[in-house]
Each structure stands twice: as structure tokens, then as C-alpha cells.
Amino acid sequence: MITVDKVSKTFHAPHEVKALQNVSCQVAKGEVVVIIGPSGSGKSTLLRCLNRLEHADTGHIYIDGVDILDRKTNINKVRAEVGMVFQSFNLFPHKTVLENVTLAQMVVRKRSPKDARDKAMALLEKVGIPDKAAVYPDRLSGGQQQRVAIARALAMDPKVMLFDEPTSALDPEMIGEVLDVMKALAREGMTMVVVTHEMGFAREVADRVIFMDQGCIVEEGTPEHFFTNPTHNRTKLFLSQIL
Amino acid sequence: MARASQQMTRGAYAFWVMVFFVFVFGVVAALYYATRKVDYVWRWYRVPQYFLYKEKAEVRSEIQGRVQDVVRNGDNVLIRVQGDGQTAQYTVPAKDIRVDAGETVYPGDVLGVFVRWKVGILMQGLWLTLKVSLISILLGIVIGLIAGLARISSNPAFKWSAVTYVEIVRGSPLLVQIFIWYFVLGTVINTLLAKNGMAQLPPIWYGVASLAFFCGAYVAEIVRAGIQSIHRGQMEAARSLGMSYPQAMRHVILPQALRRILPPLAGQFISLIKDSSLLGIIAIRELTKATREVVTTSLQPFELWFMCALLYLVLTFGLSMFVQYLERRTAVS
Predict the structure, then answer these.
(1) Among residues B136, B132, B135, B158, which one has the least CA distance to residue B147?
(2) Quick one: DSSP state of residue B67?
(3) What residue ranges in chain A does DSSP mark as E strands?
(4) Which of B74, B207, B261, B282 is deepest in the core (most CB within 10 A)?
(5) CA neighbours within 13 Å on the CB side: how many for B272?
(6) At B89, which helix (H) or strand (E)?
(7) Which residues of B touch A104 (CB under 8 A)?
(8) What percent of chain B has pLDDT over 70?
């Protein structure tokens, strides 16, 4: 489903940072991959490269066989197939919850207002907040906002979902409700790439864990291998600091 | 809020309110006293005629002949004059008829007199100021929106064009720009039009163009700042859903930016209404030019200039009320 082939990315401003150095990895269809690592390790950058919010300097990235770094690729088409959930939710504050979920369906997928609405209500039902459809995002708790953001991404019927630290901006008591939605999604067979610090989630849901440090993939493997028997010293050190 | 930081008892508050009114009254009284000292006679009753006045109109015969008949037709009277091989008909309000059937009239003889209301020169000036300002504001919004979007574009042709336009317009006096629009561009365009046998453009077009382009430069900067004040996560979220840049601008960024830029835009439009007073120098008789003309004929400068200022205040206050209404309407619950 996703193939990352020797991708590098360097940020020049405000000072030079080699965010990704020759990173290669693959994600199969239906697989849940969790990327963990200390801050500044390049894990968010890697995720953002997958839908070209960041443009990789070198290398190739294929989504469902399409080379997204090719100039001839229509990136909007690719992005419609790749849902993304942000750390800071990024709901549209001038639209109601329902409108947040219907907007892109109508603008990008050209669905009729009625179809978009039906789809949106079904998804709001699924993430557990159909009763908030008519309110504006600023009336919702962080957990509710993030669930709306997930519904908004799912409304495009994506083939892949990318999660960029979806629970990092939440109060502790709201993390569970968002993780529950993500677990349900994983059980349905959605292909997911998740950047997170939630080790419990990684252990329980992930098919594979990737550990990154300083722009490189240090280690990858099953959660059992990763949490109980890591090979690299850097992984051991990181785990000892957070667990 | 203001009183939380500056505690004041009720009595003290009432006292200082009184002080304010005494101060205002004192200034007005002092001004009035000073004008009386220089023998100025205030004649406010002369002002209304420049808004609306009664004009006495006379209907005169254009030919020599005999009044054939005078026929009443509702409130009007139809007078028919039979001359040498020609007839003429005149419709006159019935109130004041000066001829009877059978009388002989000569060219220039008064057949009837009536009184009608006419719009005065100040009213005309006010209307023209309002018209010029509104058209300039609408054009200024269009120009400013385009220039503002070009300003944040990554395409150097668009970006540098917008920067050049904004810097040139903001960096030179409006008065000079009006002269350039009228005396330079106006001469060139009108001469070209004349050479091709087309009608000339009246000065008001150049006036509107100068104000619209002047306003547009400021609107462009306001639009740019408004768009840049929207968190970039909004653009990322919209793009990650597959929207193109124009779609994301239209549905996500601009609606949010518009709400934030309404207050500074209102300030800009109020400036524009006031700046339109400069158009008098290119023979556009807007409110200030009209006032100047009335002052020369009436010799009542004090009343008229105060009246002129008051009329501008009415326009600008009306506009700022309208924008406040828009702000309330676009505010998210």
C-alpha cells in the first residue's frame, strides 16, 4: 500500500536540520504501523511526507502504486485517498460539526448535499457524537473535536489513515475515547500509520512498530519483539526513559 | 472593565459626566462668543435651501397667436395656442393660470406659473460623494482581494507585481495620484478615444479609478494580513482532504479571514469617504466642492462648513454601523 524508498528531507530554515536520512519502509494493506521515537526524530516529518504536506528532497514514495513525488501526479487525488488526523485537530471553526464533515465530500468528491449529509451522520454515529452535529467546534471538548476530525477524514473513504500524534494535545481523561475510535478502525482492517507516544496503544493494536531517532529508522518489528526484546541500545534507552 | 482598574464611586462618576458636558457646552459657547465678537451673523435658516428648495417656474408661449381653449384636465390645464399656420399645446398646473381663451399672446408671454421642489446643490454633492465612495469601495475590494492573494502567491510575477503596486500607491500622496489619473492618464486615454472617434470619459471615471486603486492597495495589505493570521493548520487540513489551493482558500481560509479583517476594512472605507473630498480638484462636484461653491455665493462659511463636516460624519457613521452589523452577523455563535 505504501512504499517509502530512500527518502531524505532537510529543513533549511531557521537552521539546517536533517529531518529524514535515507528512510525506507513499507506498509501493507490493512496493516497498522506505529512510529515512535523521541521528539525531533523525524517521525512527524515522515508521516507528513506521505501525503506531501512536506515535499521529500530525494527518494520515492508510492501510495497504492502511485509515485506521489512525480510532478505529473495529481496530488489532490492522492490526498483524497489518504486521510490525515492532526495533533491540533484543525477543525474548521466557521463550520458546524456536520459541515466540517460534509465540506470536502461535496467540494472534492462532488457528492450531493444529501449524500454527504447521510455519510456524515453515519460517521458521527460511529465516532459517538451524532448529537453534536449542529454545534460549532469551539463548543466541543478536545476529545470530541478529535473524533470529529477522524470522521471528517473518514468521510472521504480513504484507503490509508495517517495519525500525527492524535492524542498529544488532549487532557488525559479524553485520550481513551479517541484511542477507542482508532482501535475500532484498526479492527475493521483500515491501513493506518500512527505517530504516537501511547505505548499501550502500540502494544495492543500495532502490527508493527517503527522506532526512529535523528532522522533514521533505528529498529522495526512486532510489538512483542519491540517492547520485550529490543536489539538496539538506543531503543533500550528510549524505552527505559518512557516506560 | 475600565472601571475595575479605576475604582470610582457613583457620585464621583456622575460628577465627571457633568464635567464632560460642561466642557463641551463651554467650548461651543466660547466659539459662538468669539464669532459674535468678529461680527459674524449666524443664519442657519439659510442652509436648508441648499438641500431642497422651491423653484418658481413659468410656462411661456413660444409662438404668437390666439389662445384657442383652456381645458381643465384633473389638476392640470391644457392650453392650446393657435398661431399663423401653427399650433402649440402647453400643460400647466391649474393653480395659477394667467390667460383666458380668446386672448392674444406673443412669444415669451407667461401662460401660467407654478412652484416645484428642486434638489439643492449640497444634496447633489452629498449624493455624488456617496455614489463615488460606494463604487470606489466595491472596486477597491475586488482590486485589493486580487492584489492580496497575488501578494502571498509563490509565483514571483504575481507577488512582485502586487508588491510594486502596493508600495507605489501607498508611497505617494493621493492628491498626486488623482492628478496623474486625470491629467496624465486621462489626457492619454481621452485623446486615444477621440482619435478613434469614441466618446470621452468624464472626470468622474478617473476620480473613481484613482480612489479605487488607492483603496485597493490598503485593502490588499489588510487581506494579506488577514489570510496570514489564519493558522496554517487550517490550510493543511483542507489540503489533506484533497482540496486544491483555490478550493481551500474559498471554503476554508477566506471565510475565516473575512471576519477578522472587517474592522480594519471599515476603517479603510471610512478613510476613503473622507478622501473623496479631494476629487473637487478635478471638477467633480462632490460634497466639499459643492460646499465651497455655496460658500462663495451665500457668504455663510461658518454654517456651511459645519454642515459639510456633519454630512461626512453621517456617511462615515452610517458605514461603521453597517460594518458592525455585518460583524455581528458573521460572528460564530
Answers:
(1) B158
(2) E
(3) 2-11, 17-27, 32-36, 58-63, 66-67, 82-85, 160-164, 191-195, 208-213, 216-221
(4) B207
(5) 33
(6) strand B87-93
(7) 238, 241-243
(8) 98
Grid cell 389662445 in the structure block, residue: B67
Q: What is the pLDDT of residue B130?
A: 95
Q: Contact A94/B259, CB-based, under 8 Å?
A: yes
* Phi, psi dihedrals of residue B106, rounded to the nearest 5°: -115, 160
Task: List average pLDDT for each run of 10 residues in chain A, which is 243 residues long.
Answer: 94 89 94 93 94 94 93 93 96 96 96 96 95 95 96 96 95 94 95 94 94 93 90 90 80
CB atoms near residue B56 (< 10 Å)? 9
Angle at A35 between CA A33 and CA A38, to 5 degrees: 170
Least confident of A71-85, B46-60, B262-276: B46-60
B238 part of contact set with chain A, CB < 8 Å: yes
Residues of A within 8 A of B230 (CB-CB) are none
Global pTM? 0.81
Nearest one of A197, A200, A235, A242 to A218, comparing CA atoms: A235
Beta bridge partners of B56: B115
Q: How far apart are CA B206 and CA B279, in angstroms?
A: 9
Are B239 and A79 an interchain contact pair (Cβ–Cβ within 8 Å)?
A: yes
> What pLDDT is attached to residue B1?
47
CA distance A126 to A150: 10
Report CB contact under 8 Å: A90, B243. no
What is the pLDDT at residue B87? 84
Three-state SS at B320: helix
User: Could you tell me if B305 and B294 are in contact, meaning their C-beta atoms sit under 8 angstroms apart?
Assistant: no
- DSSP-based three-state secondary structure for B300: coil
The confidence score (pLDDT) of residue B333 equals: 43
ipTM > 0.85, yes or no: yes
What span, in angstroms and rounded, lies between the C-alpha atoms of B50 and B142? 36
User: Are A156 and B237 within 8 A, CB to CB?
Assistant: no
Buried b (16+ CB within 10 A) or exposed e, B313-325: eebbeebeeebee
Give B307's contacts (C-beta < 8 A, 6+ positions apart): B47, B122, B291
Cβ of residue B237 closer than 8 Å to a chain A Cβ: yes
B3: pLDDT confidence band, cut at 50, 70 and 90?
Answer: low
Nearest to A80 among B241, B251, B255 (CB): B241
Cα A91 to Cα A94: distance, rounded to the nearest angstrom: 9
Instruction: State how far the Cα of B76 lies from the Cα of A120, in Å rounded to an integer.
Output: 70
Q: Taking 70 as the threshold, does the pLDDT of residue B95 lie above it?
A: yes
Q: d(Cα A36, Cα A221) in Å, to the nearest integer?
A: 12
